Every structure is written in structure tokens, then in C-alpha cells.
């Protein structure tokens, strides 16, 4: 926690930083199956995953919505009215289709630079990056670029809710 003086210099406020609200996320690699990614997101209640290289440096953030998008057959993505023609049993099984897809298959080409912040980033910095990049998951990396944690939208909002004035 960092202490900062207010404008009058008479009161001190505690600022939360990224490393204090970050979780230790499970990670995946580009060649991992999508099914592994989905299981990790579900079990850990995460909105996405950090994709790392062999040195545990983030190479991408994989939002769950991107995985979901790829599980929907392309014809249905192009024509949402077509979805209403699918019977209920088959509509509930659509996500079984991408059995052989890898995490790398779910990422756009070229792979976008991962959304990251430093461990000492403030809640405002994290919120700004998260909002600008439209990413529900932000990787926290050290100076060497290694993953030290991740901040989820849920953790950020919870921290903002409890970090009110005079707390």
C-alpha cells in the first residue's frame, strides 16, 4: 500500500496497488486445447486467461468471450435468425464442436499485445487500461515482463467499492 498526502497535506490516504488485488491465475500456452482453457476459466471463475510463453511471459490475454465466439458455428454468427431454427437439445450442445481447437486458434491474427500493468499500478490506472482495452482481465507483470498475477474485473470493482473516501 502506498501512502499519499491529500491536497492540504494534512490527511493520508492509502492507495491500493495491482499487486495487492491481483490473483494468481492459472495460465495456458498457445498449443493447449481450448477445452483446457474453458475448464480453467470455469473452475477458477475467471473471465479469461493469460496466455504465456515458455518463460512465463504473457503473450496474450484470452477473453472467455473469444472462446465462446469460436464455439458458435460461423453460419450462426453471420445470421442470428438462423439460431432460432435449432432445436433445444442441439442448441445446448453447440459448444462441443471445437474439440480440436487450440488456444492459439482462438486468438486473432496477428496476436494482440497482452494487456498488462505494473505491480504498483493504482486502481485508477488498472480501471483505465481495462476500460480502454475492453479486457475483463489484466496481466500484472514485473520489470522483466514475467507474470506475477492478474486483476479481474470482479476484483477491481470489489476493490473500488470498498475503497471509499475516509476508509
UniProtKB/TrEMBL annotation:
Pfam families: CBS. Signal peptide: none annotated. Keywords: CBS domain, Kinase, Transferase. This is Histidine kinase. It comes from Mycobacterium gallinarum. It comes from the Bacteria. Residues 16-80, 108-167 form the CBS domain. PROSITE patterns: CBS. One of its GO terms (molecular function) is kinase activity. SUPFAM superfamilies: CBS-domain pair.
